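so i finally got all the pieces together for this one. its two components total, 227 residues if u count the protein bits. some of the lines might not be protein, just check the labels. i wanna see the whole assembly predicted at once instead of chain by chain like last time, that was a mess tbh
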Amino acid sequence: QKEVEQNSGPLSVPEGAIASLNCTYSDRGSQSFFWYRQYSGKSPELIMSIYSNGDKEDGRFTAQLNKASQYVSLLIRDSQPSDSATYLCAVNSGGSQGNLIFGKGTKLSVKP
Amino acid sequence: NAGVTQTPKFRILKIGQSMTLQCTQDMNHNYMYWYRQDPGMGLKLIYYSVGAGITDKGEVPNGYNVSRSTTEDFPLRLELAAPSQTSVYFCASSYGSGRAGETQYFGPGTRLLVL
């Protein structure tokens, strides 16, 4: 059973701080990794994708991938109250169907 | 582009009733997916399709059926609704090939309550 694990939180950080969200996955053959943000009552929207070991930066967001440790993380710098949401980690299951396996999500709360 | 659209937004069903959740995408995506999301449980794949006329089961297909007669539409059918099917249902689509093609785009969701 391929699994994606996340700490459910809630993770609470003060405004302006760095929020660090973590994810581990069980399938060593996974090649593609995604972070989705989901506001309460809304649908998931893609924030970042990462495919190679190391860091990938996009504005205030940095995704980090370590395939040897089967670990992917998302850092949010200068956190804003508008970042308060649930963050879903998703991993491509490795098949040709493009199926993603989602973690249960980490709820982030940014306090003003 | 409207992206991925879903209807209805919300529905209450009685036990044993049937209904179809509609999903349409206008991005000419090959791949389409149906997920359900229960509180605190993440997204579970129900069915997926890699093109018109081709569908396959996901992780939790029991109690559901799908069809894909066109590239744009991917309806989900619930037969004999049960309280365990109370959930939020999301349809998603992706281009399907290449790394950029793996990104899935989600519709706004359908909230279903079975009483």
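The interface with chain A takes residues 31, 33, 35, 40-43, 45, 48, 50, 56, 58, 90, 94, 96, 99, 101-109 of chain B (CB under 8 Å).
Chain B is about 0% helix and 50% strand.
anyway lmk what u think
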